[in-house]
Design goal:
There is one protein chain. The chain is built from 3 helices and 5 strands, in the order ββααβββα. With 115 residues, the chain is α+β, with helices and mostly antiparallel strands. The termini are far apart. It is globular, with a radius of gyration of 19 Å. It is 20% helix and 18% strand.
């Protein structure tokens, strides 16, 4: 059995559990077992074609599975997988400004701040 660590934003879908025991000979099977146990997770992890979403990162130990054998990475009894979603986004709203644009904080200070 493999332990899969669930990030805080997805724990709502695992009844608050930070760790879930999953079965599977490889990462793909373990992830499918996860969504069998918690079906509401599927839409957050897989796209409409049944492929793992690009922003979902899985680590076996300290290694990203993308650097190993991807979803076909074999799992051994007692392994720990960590699910780490990429975080992106920001706000287009900057208080006190009439401008609305897509600027990083450092660019905003230089270019987007009110004159």
């Amino acid at each position: 059995m493999t332990t899969l660590k669930i990030p805080t934003p997805l724990r709502y879908y695992t009844n608050g559990q930070a760790e879930v025991a999953v079965n599977g000979a490889n990462v793909s099977a373990a992830m499918r077992n996860l969504v069998e146990q918690y079906p509401t997770l599927e839409q957050h992890l897989y796209n409409g074609n049944g492929d793992l979403r690009n922003f979902v990162n899985l680590f076996l130990g300290e290694n990203n599975i993308k650097d190993l054998q991807g979803l076909e990475t074999p799992l051994n009894e007692g392994d720990t997988l960590r699910l780490i979603p990429s975080i992106a986004g920001g706000s287009n709203d900057f208080p006190g400004t009439a401008r609305r644009g897509r600027c990083s904080r450092s660019v905003w200070r230089a270019r987007c701040s009110p004159d």
